[in-house]
Structures are given as structure tokens and as C-alpha cells.
Write a structure and sequence with these properties.
Order of helices and strands: EEEHE
Shape: globular
Low-confidence stretches: none
Strand content: 25-35%
CATH topology: Ubiquitin-like (UB roll)
CATH architecture: Roll
Radius of gyration: 12 Å
Largest sheet: 4 strands, mixed
CATH class: Alpha Beta
């Protein structure tokens, strides 16, 4: 089983995701509207890259980028 680390950074109304892990020669990038969508999006990215998506996906969010829980991970 492989572990992929995902750094999430707020970028306007989106979250920009940078994915690193085994089989990737360089970081891969994607985006989501809400952080609860990150794991599925990363698994899709890995599948499109012909990499096994059955590994662990760990999403890291900088503490200063965490949304207010009332916003449900969505930014205006």
C-alpha cells in the first residue's frame, strides 16, 4: 500500500491540491471546492495517472487556512 501526501491551499473559492507520493516523478495538481472532496479527487487523479489509488491519502491543511466550520469548507 502506498501513501500519498496532499497539501491543500485556499485559492479564491477553490482549494488547490498538490499531490506527492510513490510513482509520481513530480508533484501532481488538482483542485476542489470543498476539502471533503479532496480524497476522491486525488484517487481520480491517481487512476488517470495509471497509479494504484488504493493507497492511503493524507490531506494536510495549513492551520491558518482552515475554514470556519459554519462555512462547511466552502468560501464565497
Amino acid at each position: 500500500m502506498s501513501t500519498y501526501h496532499v497539501a491543500a491551499q485556499k485559492c479564491g473559492t477553490w482549494w488547490a491540491l498538490t499531490v506527492e507520493g510513490p510513482g509520481l516523478s513530480r508533484p501532481a495538481h488538482t483542485q476542489v471546492h470543498r476539502l471533503d472532496e479532496a480524497e476522491d479527487m486525488v484517487r481520480d487523479l491517481l487512476a488517470l495517472s495509471a497509479l494504484p489509488g488504493s493507497g492511503d491519502v493524507i490531506v494536510a491543511v495549513p492551520p491558518d487556512s482552515r475554514p470556519d466550520p459554519a462555512d462547511r469548507n466552502r468560501f464565497p
